[in-house]
């Protein structure tokens, strides 16, 4: 299941993308979530958001959260994006 939430707060579009998959730590082979290589998609996304943030707003950027259930087992992933909104 994938859930996408969007809301606009002043000049920032907040986007939350959540899934209930196996999670990044399960796919990486370890509980500490260490990846053997850097994701080019993550690096490119970060660079593009920095370029788009002409006002240096603190909320622009992204973060990735590994979700756990009540027993501490992997319960998916949640990505938070803050995107500058151009309002004319």
Structural notes for this entry:
The model has no long low-confidence stretch (mean pLDDT 83). A four-stranded antiparallel beta sheet has the order 1-2-4-3. It is built from two helices and four strands; from the N terminus they run ββααββ. It has 88 residues and is an alpha+beta fold. The protein has one domain. Strand 1 (2-9) and strand 2 form a beta hairpin.
Question: Which descriptors apply to this entry?
Answer:
single chain; 88 residues; alpha+beta; four-stranded antiparallel β-sheet
Series of H and E elements: EEHHEE
- Helix segment count? 2
Secondary-structure content class: alpha+beta
Helix content: 10-25%
Low-confidence stretches: none
Number of strands: 4
Instruction: Tell me the strand order in the biggest sheet.
Output: 1-2-4-3
Strand content: 35-45%
